[in-house]
Design goal:
Layout (H helix, E strand, L loop, with lengths): L5 E5 L4 H15 L4 E7 L9 H15 L3 E7 L8 H14 L3 E5 L6 H17 L15 E5 L9 E4 L4 H9 L2 H4 L9 H20 L5 E5 L13
Helix pairs in contact: 1-5, 2-5, 3-4
């Protein structure tokens, strides 16, 4: 399998689209190979079935232009940091050999998003250890990024996604069972106001860099600067 430049993890199908769908669409348009790995099938979601969500994820993936999308099939609301799950995610990282790994911001109202970040962070570290033996050879990730799902915090940097923003929203609405209120569906935050929240947040981030829409990321690693005039 070819390596990818960007590998994004989400606890559930649609998490990555919410946090960085525009950034993915922008980079696939630039020719970068990008993959998404969903840890669970979102089987405990109020609306929709597992089969629906998997079909919706396929549609969304085509909209974003993904190189590949996988689902690890962990149990929804039971994402635990244990040796078995760490090894599972390590193999995914080593298989794709990404330069950048993205995951949800580590503080979020949904425990699954927080546990996704913890699990993937552990796996990124172990993936780089030569003596941590799995099916694939060790691989050191160059950068770890955190994207926002429910939070709006001060980002380390912002990505202008104005030109591809329609694709982000299309990718989100591909999950009709979650974001579109239909006859027989139960009213939730997702199908009531959440897309408006996403647009408002991305619009606010965009205003910070004098553009229409942007997505924010947290980047823990210090940035090396040799020339202040090139900041």
């Amino acid at each position: 399998m070819d390596k990818v430049e960007i590998l994004a993890f989400g606890a559930h199908p649609d998490d990555v689209e919410i946090g960085m769908g525009g950034t993915i669409a922008k980079h696939t348009s630039l020719g970068y190979k990008t993959a998404i790995v969903d840890l669970t099938r979102g089987e405990l979601s109020t609306n929709g079935t597992v089969e629906q969500r998997l079909r919706e994820a396929e549609i969304s993936s085509k909209i974003l232009g993904l190189y590949r999308r996988d689902n690890l099939g962990l149990q929804d609301r039971n994402i635990t940091v244990n040796p078995t799950n760490i090894r599972l995610v390590v193999d995914v990282i080593r298989k794709f050999k990404p330069d950048i790994v993205a995951m949800p911001y580590w503080e979020d109202p949904h425990p699954d998003h927080e546990n996704c970040a913890r699990l993937v962070k552990e796996a990124v570290f172990s993936a780089g250890l030569i003596k941590f033996k799995t099916e694939y050879e060790s691989h050191k990730v160059k950068q770890i990024l955190y994207y926002f799902i429910n939070e709006t915090l001060e980002p380390s940097f912002l990505v202008d996604v104005s030109r591809v923003y329609d694709r982000k929203i299309q990718a989100i609405y591909a999950y009709e069972s979650q974001f579109i209120k239909k006859t027989g569906s139960i009213k939730t935050a997702l199908n009531d106001y959440f897309v408006k929240f996403i647009k408002n947040r991305d619009g606010y981030f965009g205003s910070r860099i004098a553009t229409d829409y942007a997505e924010g990321f947290i980047y823990k690693k210090p940035r090396k600067v040799d020339d202040l005039t090139k900041l």
